[in-house]
Amino acid sequence: MKLQTLFLCALFVASPLCAMAKDDCDTVETVRGQGVVVMDFYADWCGPCKKMHKVIEQLIREFPRVSFTKVNVDLMRNVASQYNVVSLPTLVIVKNGAEVARRTGLKSYSELAGLIRSVL
Question: What is the pTM of this model?
Fold first, then answer.
């Protein structure tokens, strides 16, 4: 699995998974016209987040046209704040620049796959 570490403040199409790992800006510009982006808000110390990563890997294989972005809340506090993330793990689904769905806590593959299908 290819994992890119990106130091950008804008969300963009990920291939296949990008990690936002540095808090270099105050706000995040969401993707405009880029389709569906699944933002996985996590922390390295979070046990359920580690389990969720395995689910995300499955989703990446199932949904090749969806972009997946990991956001480390300890390093990207401003991004977590902008998206009002208060619990981990949190998945935020953005479609064409607007949040369309959100789930907090460890979720099953089938629940998240159904959620993604519903916003495509």
Answer: 0.78
